[in-house]
Amino acid sequence: MARAALRPLLAQAIATTRDAWRGSVELDLVAVFDARGCGLGCFDAETWGEDEVCPFGSGGDCFGAYKVQRGFDGFVENAGIEVRRMQPSVAVWRWDATG
Ligand SMILES: [Zn+2]
User: Fold this and answer.
1) How many domains does the chain divide into?
2) Assigned domain for 97 exists
3) In this predicted structure, what is the pLDDT of residue 94?
4) Which domain holds residue 52?
5) 3-30 residue pLDDT tens
6) Residue 97 pLDDT > 70, yes or no?
7) How far is the centre of ligand 1, averaged over its atoms, from the C-alpha of 41 (Å)?
8) Residue 78 located in a structural domain
9) How much distance in Å is there from the Cα of 52 to the middle of ligand 1?
10) Mean of pLDDT over the chain
11) Torsion angles phi and psi, residue 86, rounded to 5
12) 63 C-alpha to center of ligand 1: Å?
């Protein structure tokens, strides 16, 4: 899906989640999408062991991200972020953009 079409969907996902948040700490939300075709199964890994979790090794930049926070509103891609170092992560919800 083209970034222009994806942007309003990701922005709405962040806004909906942020508006429903009732915690006392600031949420650090990011909407991620499959940028390189790994299917993002790497986000489901509970541990990053010997088994191949992501076809891109450590999950480095296998995802694109959209973030809205503190004046920033946009895509963050190729930031050198490894999914392996983001464990455990919590998926608030998922949406299959392929159909
Ligand atoms: Zn991956």
Assistant:
1) 1
2) no
3) 82
4) 3-86
5) 888 899 999 999 998 999 999 998 888 8
6) no
7) 6
8) yes
9) 10
10) 84
11) -105, 10
12) 7
Rounded CA-CA distance 65/32 in Å is 4
Ligand 1 center–CA 1 separation, angstroms: 18
Residue 34 lies in a domain: yes
What would the pLDDT profile of 85-95 be if each residue is shown by its tens digit? 887 777 777 87
The predicted pLDDT at position 7 comes to 92
Q: Could you tell me if residue 92 is inside a domain?
A: no
How many angstroms is it from 58 CA to the middle of ligand 1? 8
Output the pLDDT for position 99. 59
Report CA(59)–ligand 1 centroid distance (Å).
Answer: 4
* Terminal Cα-to-Cα distance of the chain (whole angstroms): 11
How far is residue 40 from each of residues 26, 73, 94, measured CA to CA in Å?
A: 25, 23, 11
Euclidean distance between CA atoms 46 and 16, whole angstroms: 26
